[in-house]
Structure formats: structure tokens, C-alpha cells
Write a structure and sequence with these properties.
2 copies of one chain form a homodimer.
Chain A: H1 7-17, H2 21-24, H3 34-52, H4 56-61, E1 65-67, E2 70-72, H5 77-86, H6 105-139, H7 142-154, E3 157-162, E4 178-181, E5 187-197, E6 206-213, E7 226-231, E8 233-235, E9 241-244, E10 247-252, E11 263-276, H8 282-318, H9 333-366, H10 369-400, H11 403-406, H12 412-419, H13 429-437, H14 446-462, H15 467-488, H16 492-497, H17 499-521, H18 526-538, H19 541-549, H20 561-565
Parallel strand pairs in A: 3-6
Antiparallel strand pairs in A: 1-2, 4-5, 5-11, 6-7, 7-11, 8-9, 10-11
Chain lengths: 566, 566
């Protein structure tokens, strides 16, 4: 069951659903012609199919381990990483000044998607580096940029993000790691960080850690946090890895999945670090990096959904049982329903992610605040819905396999175990939903209403040719509009209580809109039949979700801790 | 975070929600007075808390393994099993004639529930034996009964079920294992069986396998299947384990979870077996056993939901983070929402399961076909919704833990990995849904409509005191009634296409009915606040599910295998 890069799906969504043409119509991305994008995705797809996909099981059966303080990676991961780096796939969106290709985020998103589908554990490594590159591009001094960026972009060095501490998870402001000035412009970083993905490896020349810590006298909370670049090996005068820094991997976590990615407990013991951005302004730099990382993690979920889907489809086409015309279980209506659900949900999540990527590209190319607001609005939705879809689709993949799905040898269960963390890291999906109803509605709902105007306007036009699909999409958008109005008029306590069902209801409506666009663009096609399936059978879920979202906090906090323990 | 048996919940549901009093009002179960039931559940709870719960992690960290053809069980499991057997907990519903207590299925259900919550992997062992006892009670010869039943009921011997073969999973009729008459009344059984839960152990005196096989000249399909009892050791003249039979454990499956339960590939090589029931009538005997096993597996899901909930609640009450009044994450609205969802869903699934148990008891006590039809209707719902709830609640438990949920040491992930199989074994949840819309609506919906009459009638009465809760329950029941009417009027192809959303929508409405009953019985209580939460926030999901359920097969099978592979 070899993995096949879903190039046709990217083409369909980019060309007919999220209007990628407007990105290439800008000066900044004029070089990203359709032919060039096609060629790039084709090349990336080849690498994913031939090099990465065969490594997927190794991450699980031959996990990363800690030996004498050094992380030893899974069999074949070093070669896989080399293929990513040599192909230039670590950071194709990076600034050409430092060796990047300056390509749109939409193209990066497709490449990250297929790398995640092929081998999530290994793909997490360049995803971390991408975030670091972006943070350095925006906030580092020219001197740091000159030393680090070319090596990160080429993949010679890897990057990590160090936020979490044992007592400071979702509440980043509670962190206590310290940074003391050394008097020479560098800082001595001391503290323990946990959950550091790819905190070490045995295939890159250096591992560069971005570490949040507090300077002496810093304010409590998030306002007293600064960001430091702390390399494993301190670059020498020529910029080559020099003496070892005072940091170490203390242990690896024993996780439910993603065993190919070493999740490290890191100890910094007066390690030498360089300030990135201004003092006490570390959160702003982290947010630059986190926004795109949130898209990146959402896309991990979508990639795993793709991998799990292809895996289950191959099984269903091959598994002989029962007396259907096909002779295999794909002839059973319930198996067909599961597979169609998997494909339709993956399409919806992918279209949302690529729509976000286009918004980021348009914001970068035009500096238009409306595009930036659109990107900000879509970020938590793409992250949470992408990862929830990854989990739901992988679980359906297990179910399609029946008993074989619970047996590890088939690999179906690995998708589910691997992807489960994506709903937790990079801000739990609950945090994403709170971001959506809090920060992202602080404009009084303006960005949301603008998006709803587009959805309704498209549905109104589509009524002429696709009345049975356009009408429910229009109605759903109207229900979502009323819900946004209700949330905007309510206080934060009410909004936070219903943030998660609201986000999912929003994603349902968005997914329906993008399916409708596909159906209109390609009548009488597989895409239009899938759109009809989604709009008829999955879209109605929004009714319950948005009813929940309008319930506010009434009756929720009245369920006391004592009630819960009763 | 020690496990606490949820005795108050059992009391609430038995007394105020599913009218267990009508069971004890029958002659057959007159001895099961409220005091006696309370005492029994208290004793079982003590054993679960003190003996079984401490073994839960051992099943995962010290899995069952195959050594020289013999299964070695997890550390402490032998002692745990002894406590179950010596306490008389293997089969409290079994006929007193063979050493059972003849207690109602409702009491068994509570005991199975808390054993599953405490240690699912070990509980699966007596659950298999319970099914075997029931099959033998109904179908075995008096001679077989006399030899086997006392030892199975006492727990001295264990029982297993052998249905699946590599080419015959959900399609049991495709099995090819053979049974040849030996001429002395016994049969020589030959074939390979897979997915045999607890196919062997190192703590019981014998392992008795119920094996489906074909006699010479048997018809193809399910009509040519017979059932045989095939013990690991052939009982000698005194009924003690004698010579080893010609069967062996070939290998154990490497599964996603439930590592404490050995899932065996079994080879029968002319093994001596005894016919149970009539020739070629094995499926009928299997169905006797499977119906109650389906309730048993549904209850496994509910038990795990309970375990995962208590585990997550303890974490949330302890985890300091943020600035809520409580100082811990339980003060966050989204954490409160997750915990309330977990508790409300567990209540709904448990009430459905206990309502089914009461129906089984009433059917057994009165032989009333209406009670039997009610039990038949509720069986697939209890199995599928109970296990789906186990999975959903365990996944929420991981989410409440944040990053710690993905780290195996906390045990949150184990609940999710362990419970995932319950949606697959004992008939996948898709098969359950097909049973519901097929066989269980063959009465033209009569049993379903009778249940809906009760639900609406209760809601009508409750309107006087609880209008805000009673009205949505009545409306939801009406929508469900319309959906049942639509299904009854449609053909099987249409029904099978929507079976899964229909089952879940049905369960949603049932859950709301039972919550309403609790709210009416206990005004201004934790239960009534939880009911309001469920009815306001979770019940609305039925709208989307039942809309899907009314969509028939239109547009589903038109999504061709080629479309899916596009």
C-alpha cells in the first residue's frame, strides 16, 4: 500500500477553491507560476513517496532513544532527513537572502502536508526549524541572522522551541527559567524545559534552541519574558560548531505515539544564549513563530488524515468479505460511509488550511489589514479542526480495518497514536478555541462577518446551478452569523464556556463552503459527489454545535467541583 | 488518585432512573432486595478499589507474553483473578443450581462496570467466562453442564469464545474450521482461530474454548455452523483436568492496548470437542451468548469512561495553573466543560446499559415478549454507545491532562488505548448499527415506538415541573419517531447507509430521557445540574445525526471506489 502524494487534491483546492491565483498575481509571489508550483509539488511528492513513507513504521518500531546523553534516531531517519535538507524542503518559504526560495506559505503548506502524511515523526523536525527561521527573520540581529539562518535554511542545523516548564504549560507566563547577562552581550541561561520536540538528534551539525527565560528584575507573567537563542555547540569565529554549550538532554518522554520524535527534558545550566528581539518582549517573538506553527500543526493533522485514509482505502479494496458486488468490504455501505467521511473531512480541513495559507501570503504580499485579520481569524480554526480531523480520521481508519486495526502490525493504530498529540501541543485545541472567541472576536466580529458575507454571497450565486447544495450552506452561514452576533454581545466567561463547540461549528460551515466551491468548479465529478455527501450528511452537525455555542456559561460553572466528585 | 467505585451512581440509576424495583418485585428476583443489592455492590466495589485498580498499570507495563507455548500473565493478575473468583464475582447471575447466585443482570452489569473501570484487561477474562456459562446453561447437555458449569461459575476454570478466522471476521459464515465425528460422541476439531481473548492464562485449572466449526456435509454460510466445547485439558472421570488436548496458542497479537489480556492465535489439530446444542445450529447458541456479551462489552466502555473520568478529575483538581478562584485548572471553563461532558456522557451510557439489563431481567422473569423486544432493541445501542462513550471520554481524559496526557506514565493514554478495541470486538459498532436498523426494526418499529411513547409520556408529565428540560426531550423524541418512521418505510440499502448516525441519534435521545428522569427524581442536585448540562448542550447533537439518518443511501454508493481513489 504505497503512499501517493495527493497532488490532484492540492491542484483542485489551490486552483478552484481558495483562489491561489491571487497570490501569484502579487509582485512578491509573481515567480510562483502554476507550472512552477506543480513542478515543486511533484518533486516534493516524489521524495515523500520514495524516501519518507518507507520510514513511517521505523519511527514506531525503532524509537528514538537516549544513549550517553545523545539522542539516537530511528533507523533511516538520518537518510530521510538528508533527503529533506538536500531537496531544499526544510524551509521553502524562507527569505532567498539566506538561501530560501521565498515561496508562498500555500506551497509550504502542501509540502508540509505530504511530509506529515508520509512520516509525521520526522516531519516534525523541519517544522520546528521553520518556526525558528521565521522568528529569527523577524526578530534577530543581523549578526545572528548571518550566522544561523543559512545553516537552518539549508538544513545543516536544526531548530527547536523551548517554552514549557513543569509548572508552566498552557500558562506560559508562569515560567521561571533565568537569563543573567554575562557582560559580553551574551546571557547565561539556567532552567529546565520539558516537552522539547526533537531536542536533540544524531544527524544535524548543531541544534539551535529558542528558549524563553526571565532577565533579572523582569515583571511577573508574560510581560517579563525574553527570548534567547541557545545553540548546542557555540559557533566559532568561522560560524562552525565549536565548544559544547552548558545544556543537556536529561531524559526522553515515553509517549503514546510519535516515538520517532525524541521529546526531551532539557536542562540549561548557565548555557550561553543570545537575545532575540527586545528584552522582555519574548512573547511577541514567540507569537510570530507560533501563528505559523499553529498552521503547521493543523496541517500535521491533515497529513496524518491523508495517510490514514489511503491506508484504510487500500485495505478496504483488498479485504475480501461478504457478498457485495465488489467482493471486498468497500461494497458495504457502512465502510463506504466511513471512507467518504474520511475523504470529505480531510478535504474540508485541507481547504481551510490552504485558505489560511493564502490569507497569510496575501497579508505578506499586500500588507492589507483585512488579509491579516482573515489569517488571524482562521489560524485557531485551522489548527484545532485540522488536528481533530487527523484524530477522527485516523480512528475511522482503525475502524475500517476491524480487528486488524487494533493490531499494531498493520500500522493503522500508529496513525491514531501519533496524531493524538497534535490536539495538545502548540496550544491545546481548547486554547485555540479561547483564542478564537476572545482575541479573534475583539474586532466586534468584523473579520468573521466579512468571511460570512463571502460565504453567503457565493451560496447565493451557486443557487442557480446547485440549489440543493447552496441552500443548506447559506442557511448554515446564517446560523453561524447569529451565533457570532450572540458571542460578540456576551462576556468572556460566556464565550470561553462554549469556545470549543463554536470553533467546530465554524469549521463545519467553512468546510461546507469550500466543498460547495469544489462542486461548482467541477460539476459531475468525484469532488462534487463528495461535496454532496458532506453538505447532506456532515454539515447538519453544525446545528447542535452552534446551539451549544449559544448556551453561554449558564449552568456550566454551577456544576461545582463537588458536583463533579459526587 | 485511588479509584472509587461509583456506588451512588448505581443507586441513583437503579432506584430513580430505570425502575429496578420492578425486577425485585418479580418472583424470580424477589431475593435481590435493595439492602442485599447495596451490600453486594459495596463488597464488589471494595474488591475493585483495593485489589483490581492497583493492577491496571501492570497490564500495560508488564504485558501478557507467550513462553514455550504458555501464556504468562501480568504481575499481580493471578492474585487479582483469585480475588474475583473467591469473591464469587465471575458469574453472579449464573443459575444457583451450578453455584451461581442467580442475581439479576442489572447487578451483574454494575459489577462488570466497576471491574472494567478498575482493570479492563483482567475483567475481560470473567466476561468471556460469563458468556460461556450462559451458552452452556441454555444449550449444553446435562452431562456437559454437570462437568463444566460448577468449575466455570466458581472461577476454577475459564472460558473463551472462538469465532473469528483469518478470512472470516464480521462475516462469520465464511469460517472453515472442521469438526469430524470420532464415533464416540466426541468430535475432532481442526482449524485456526484468531483474536481469541484470554486464549490461555497461567492461573486457572483449565481453559474451555467454545469453538464454531463445520460438520461434514454442512451447508455453506451460517446455516452450516455447529458449536463445540473444546477444553485445554480433557476432564478425567472425576471431572478433573486430565490429558492435554490437541490445541495450542500459536502466537499473541501485538495490540494498541489491552496488553494485559493475551489475544491469541489458536490452532486446533484434531482437538477433542463436545457438541453444544444441535448440529448446524451453532449460530443460535452463539447469539444467546453474544447478546449478553454485547451488553458486557458496552459496559466495558462505560467502566473505562468511569476510570478515565475519575483519573482526569483528580488531575484537574490537583494541577495548579492559571489564576482561577480554585487555583487549579478545574476553574477553567473549558476544563469544566470537558469534565461535565465526561460525567454526563458516562451517566447516559450507564443508564442505557442498566435499562437494557432491567429489560433482560424482566424478560427472563416474566417471559413477556414486549420486554424481550425491548432488550433486543436496546442491545446494539448499549454496545455501540457504551463503547463509543468509553473512547470519547478517555480521549477527553487525555485532553484534560494536556501534555501529561500524552506521556504514558500518567496512565491517561492507557485508558484510550485499552478501550479502543471495544468498538471493534463482539461485532463492530457498524455491525451493531446494522443490527438495529435491520433485525431490530423488523417489527415495523413497534418496539421503538413503544419506547418513544414512554419517553414522550414522561416528558409530558415533567413539563409541569421542569419545562426547560422536558420540552427539548419531547421534541427530540418526536424527531426520532419521524426518523424511525422513515427508516421503517425504506429498504435495507437505505437503512444500512445511515445505520451508524441513526444509532447515535437514538442513544442521544435515550440519554436525555434518562437524564430528565434523574433531574425529576432529584431536584436541585448534582444530578439535575448535570441533566441540564446534557439536555442543553449535548442533546442538540441529535438534530444533525437524525438529519443524516433520514438521508438514506442517496449519493453514498454513487461515490465509487474510483472516486475514493481519485
Amino acid at each position: 500500500m504505497p503512499f501517493r502524494a495527493p497532488l490532484d487534491d492540492y491542484r483542485l483546492i489551490l486552483n478552484d477553491v481558495v483562489d491561489f491565483a491571487q497570490v501569484t498575481a502579487t509582485d512578491r509571489f509573481a515567480e510562483a507560476t502554476p507550472d512552477m508550483v506543480d513542478a515543486i509539488l511533484g518533486e516534493a511528492g516524489k521524495m515523500c513517496e520514495e524516501v519518507l513513507a518507507p520510514l513511517q513504521r521505523n519511527g514506531d518500531t525503532d524509537p528514538a532513544r537516549l544513549e550517553n546523553g545523545v539522542v539516537r534516531t530511528s533507523r533511516g531517519f538520518a537518510e530521510g532527513y538528508r533527503a529533506i535538507a538536500e531537496g531544499g524542503w526544510v524551509a521553502i518559504a524562507a527569505d532567498p537572502e539566506h538561501g530560501g526560495m521565498g515561496l508562498p506559505m500555500a506551497v509550504t503548506t502542501c509540502v508540509n502536508d505530504m511530509m506529515s502524511a508520509a512520516c509525521l515523526a520526522l516531519q516534525l523536525n523541519p517544522l520546528m526549524t521553520q518556526g525558528q527561521i521565521e522568528a529569527l527573520e523577524h526578530h534577530a540581529s543581523d549578526e545572528l541572522k548571518a550566522i544561523y539562518l543559512p545553516k537552518l535554511v539549508s538544513g545543516e542545523w536544526c531548530g527547536t522551541m523551548n517554552l514549557t516548564e513543569p509548572q508552566a504549560g498552557s500558562d506560559v507566563g508562569a515560567l521561571t527559567s533565568k537569563a543573567e547577562p554575562n557582560g559580553d552581550g551574551t546571557y547565561a541561561i539556567t532552567g529546565q524545559k520539558i516537552y522539547i520536540s526533537w531536542g536533540d538528534n544524531d544527524f544535524s551539525g548543531n541544534v539551535c534552541h529558542l528558549v524563553l527565560a526571565r532577565l533579572p528584575g523582569a515583571a511577573p507573567g508574560t510581560k517579563g519574558i525574553s527570548l534567547f537563542l541557545v545553540p548546542k555547540f557555540i559557533p566559532d569565529a568561522q560560524g562552525n560548531p565549536g565548544v559544547a554549550n552548558s545544556l543537556k538532554v536529561v531524559s526522553l518522554e515515553h509517549k503514546m505515539g510519535l516515538h520517532g520524535s525524541a521529546t526531551c527534558v532539557m536542562a540549561y545550566e548557565g548555557a550561553t544564549g543570545w537575545l532575540v528581539g527586545e528584552q522582555h518582549d519574548g512573547m511577541r517573538a514567540m507569537f510570530t513563530m507560533m501563528n505559523n506553527a499553529r498552521l503547521g500543526v493543523g496541517v500535521q493533522g491533515i497529513g496524518v488524515a491523508e495517510g490514514a485514509y489511503q491506508h484504510a482505502l487500500a485495505y478496504a479494496q483488498d479485504r475480501k468479505q461478504g457478498r457485495s458486488p465488489e467482493g471486498t468490504i468497500i461494497g458495504h455501505a457502512d465502510v463506504r460511509r466511513m471512507l467518504a467521511t474520511m475523504k470529505a473531512e480531510t478535504f474540508a480541513a485541507r481547504a481551510i488550511a490552504l485558505s489560511l495559507a493564502v490569507s497569510i501570503d496575501m497579508g505578506n504580499a499586500t500588507d492589507d489589514p483585512e488579509w491579516k485579520a482573515r489569517a488571524a481569524l482562521l489560524t485557531p480554526i485551522a489548527k484545532a479542526f485540522g488536528t481533530d480531523t487527523g484524530i477522527d480520521v485516523a480512528s475511522l481508519g482503525v475502524q475500517v480495518h476491524g480487528g486488524m486495526g487494533y493490531v499494531e502490525e498493520t500500522g493503522a493504530a500508529q496513525y491514531l497514536r501519533d496524531v493524538r498529540v497534535t490536539a495538545i501541543y502548540e496550544g491545546t485545541n481548547g486554547i485555540q478555541a479561547m483564542d478564537l472567541v476572545g482575541r479573534k472576536l475583539m474586532d466586534g466580529g468584523e473579520a468573521a462577518f466579512r468571511l460570512l458575507d463571502e460565504i453567503e454571497s457565493f451560496a447565493e450565486t451557486a443557487r442557480a446551478t446547485h440549489p440543493a447544495l447552496a441552500e443548506p450552506v447559506w442557511q448554515a452561514a446564517e446560523t453561524l452569523r447569529e451565533t457570532v452576533e450572540a458571542l460578540v454581545a456576551s462576556d468572556m466567561a460566556d464565550r470561553f464556556a462554549v469556545a470549543v463547540p463554536f470553533l467546530r461549528g465554524f469549521a463545519r460551515v467553512l468546510g461546507a463552503h469550500f466543498h460547495l466551491r469544489a462542486a461548482v468548479a467541477r460539476p459531475d465529478s468525484a469532488a462534487s459527489r463528495l461535496a454532496a455527501f458532506y453538505i447532506t450528511r456532515l454539515l447538519p452537525e453544525h446545528v447542535g454545535l452552534l446551539a451549544h455555542a449559544r448556551a453561554g456559561s449558564d449552568g456550566l460553572m454551577e456544576i461545582t467541583p463537588d458536583d463533579l466528585a459526587a
